[in-house]
Amino acid sequence: MAKFAIMGFGTVGGGVAEVLRLNGGAIAEKLGEPLSLQYILDLRDLSETPYADKAVKDFSILENDPELELVVEAIGGAKAALEFTRRALLAGKHVVTSNKELVAAHGRELLAIAREKNVSYLFEASVGGGIPVLRPLSQCLSGNRVQEIVGILNGTTNYILTRMVQDGVSFDEALREAQAKGYAEQNPAADVEGLDACRKICILSDLAWGGEVRPEAVHTQGITAIDLRDVAIASGAGYRIKLLGRALALPDGRLAAYVAPHLVPLSCPVAGVDDVFNAIMIRGNAVGDVMFYGRGAGDLPTASAVMGDIIDALQHRGSPRKLGWDRDAALVDFDTELPLYWYLRGDFTPPPGSQILSDGAVIVGPVSHREAKALVQRFAAQVMLPVLR
Amino acid sequence: MAKFAIMGFGTVGGGVAEVLRLNGGAIAEKLGEPLSLQYILDLRDLSETPYADKAVKDFSILENDPELELVVEAIGGAKAALEFTRRALLAGKHVVTSNKELVAAHGRELLAIAREKNVSYLFEASVGGGIPVLRPLSQCLSGNRVQEIVGILNGTTNYILTRMVQDGVSFDEALREAQAKGYAEQNPAADVEGLDACRKICILSDLAWGGEVRPEAVHTQGITAIDLRDVAIASGAGYRIKLLGRALALPDGRLAAYVAPHLVPLSCPVAGVDDVFNAIMIRGNAVGDVMFYGRGAGDLPTASAVMGDIIDALQHRGSPRKLGWDRDAALVDFDTELPLYWYLRGDFTPPPGSQILSDGAVIVGPVSHREAKALVQRFAAQVMLPVLR
Asked: Which of A80, A340, A342, B328 has the most CB atoms around its CB within 10 Å?
């Protein structure tokens, strides 16, 4: 019997308990032993739930139970989650999480502790929800030099943009809908300002190239300024506007990483990924382009990834997978060192050599972010978005 | 230093050597030791290649080298490949392959030997070429009950169908083009008659449900009878014709598996997968639908998957991943027990209740294959294809 605990009984934590209830028999068959949920750590009152007998409020009960092998951290944030993850690993317990904020900010330290204690710290669910992407990247594609990662990493903003593109709904209205459907938080800043996507592209980069990319070093632009006019112009020219996280290995060995709404040509498979779906494209020097697609959020999809990690950790007791990034990544300066194509719109004379779209919109490039900003000022353009090529 | 050999120096074997040449430094970093290609077993004369000093013609040299840890089987077929794989595993060597024919027909026996000898027998490259799909299925999605697998599993036939759909080229002409481009063999039967896709859906089913599905038990229909009229009618009605391998878990616990050209609605992400690309959709009861997309063949993409398996096998020496199927799958009778929707075309009076398309084509269902064949006879229809819903 393998014993585990869930910390934080919200959407993800509840989903993990539900997946165990649904699929416990099949999971036990794969593990060769039953998987038993011993504790649920939550400050809320769980006495009216089916899990009343498992509820505890004191982390030290988990920490001090020598039979408890694994803890699911579904608290979120980087305060209690950080402290309890650290202490659980130090107590020799495997930890599985979907907490991208914690992994992006403190994964390096936590993975080092896990290595030292010979346990697993796994976080497949932190990127792409239920979509398998981190394990394929770090295992199946390990014979490649990764050249680029680009993806729709946030389901909430993809839902909002899909509503704007397909139905001409304004950003504000689409956001209200997303909140009503439970896709967006009441405070949607982390989603619509791109921070959630930023954390995910950091984790992907950390794993792909083995150097830490810190979220605060990543140029991050959200979708709050996207206007229906740009949506219409882009559609007319054969593009979709998508919020992308993107990371590239440059020929000199340095990395570029940024988050921004892009014009994506319809010929790119990512352009057709709508609603709350996510898709992550990885380019390797041997495999070419591979894409992973599915629901990037939700209780059961996220719990699916957590459960896959739980099974993996318990199947590899004593020989945990080697994961980690133990140096700083060398990043280029996004502002000056990464030439891109840019969509500009405004009531202006187009810069020479630009590709003319419609309604005062053009595509220029390749030029750096700083040069594009200079063009915006010089020609009095109003909007500026990178274009995926 | 980890020492390995390649058996069979054709497209895949040559690709593995090339990936090692390209990425050997990065691979050594992941392994913590250099990966050294010791032998290439091939009956051809390799004296004019850069690998002349590694060429051997006698398998027993590999078998009897106690320092040789791993063998890549890239011979193909199920004769010498079977014998050498068996002997390599019995000699305690890990074996990695892309040989779907061998895995589909003899995987059960070979995995049992591997388990007994505590070595790995890995075959990620046998399905989807470079696309990570078997490891995500057996690891990341292991917390799910898999409900359905459906995919474009053969790049050659997808290229042919894409040319027919997009450019109105006939089957015969598209096949000649595919041969000229090196996508199709001079004897294209295994591709165009669906056998290659059949072997792949068997391997996916074996892993997803743990029971062996034998290729000869799977209803398999190829694309040789696809007519440009059906392509045009399908396009006009919002469908693409795609050769799909499909496997379903039915409520009574039995499986259905078959291969056939389907009408796929454009709303399904698989419909937009063109040219030589493959895509595999997996539906789990927790994760919902996830899709894996990329190049399903080619020397470097396939070698990428082989190299991922090599690294995995060597990283888990002594604790190989538990894989296998050690019972027969319970299959429904495709002819009578699997109700589907069917596209029928002919110069006939449509059956009552059918959905009328154009040019004498209708969609009927859900009815069994046998009932659909009876409708074909009764109404003198000429063409009959399943429709994906």
From this structure: A342
Q: A34 in contact with B at a CB cutoff of 8 Å?
A: no
CATH fold of A137-294 reads Dihydrodipicolinate Reductase; domain 2 (3.30.360)
Tens of pLDDT, residues B266-317: 989 999 999 999 999 999 999 999 999 999 888 999 999 999 999 999 999 9
Helix (H, G, I), strand (E, B) or coil at B119: coil
**What part of A 289-318 touches B (C-beta under 8 Å)?**
289-295, 298, 300-301, 303-308, 310-312, 315-316, 318
Distance, CA of B380 to CA of B382 (rounded, Å):
7
Q: Give residue-wise pLDDT tens across range B317-373.
A: 988 888 889 899 999 999 999 999 999 998 888 888 899 998 889 999 999 999 999
Which CATH class name applies to A2-130+298-315? alpha beta
Domain B141-295 has CATH 3.30.360.10: yes
Classify the complex by whether its ipTM is higher than 0.90, answering yes or no.
yes
Measured in whole angstroms, how far is the alpha carbon of residue B248 from the centre of its chain?
16
Q: pLDDT band for position A263 (50/70/90)?
A: very high
| Contact at CB, B287 and A294, closer than 8 angstroms | yes
Instruction: Tell me what the pLDDT averaged over chain A comes to.
Output: 95
Q: Residue A310 and residue B141: Cβ atoms within 8 Å? A: no
Q: Which among B11, B134, B142, B166 is the top mutation candidate for probing chain A, defined by the most A β-carbons within 10 Å of its own β-carbon?
A: B142
Q: Which two tokens stand for residue B168?
A: 């109105």
Sequential DSSP letters for A20-52: HHHHHHHHHHHHTS-EEEEEEE-SS--TTSTTG
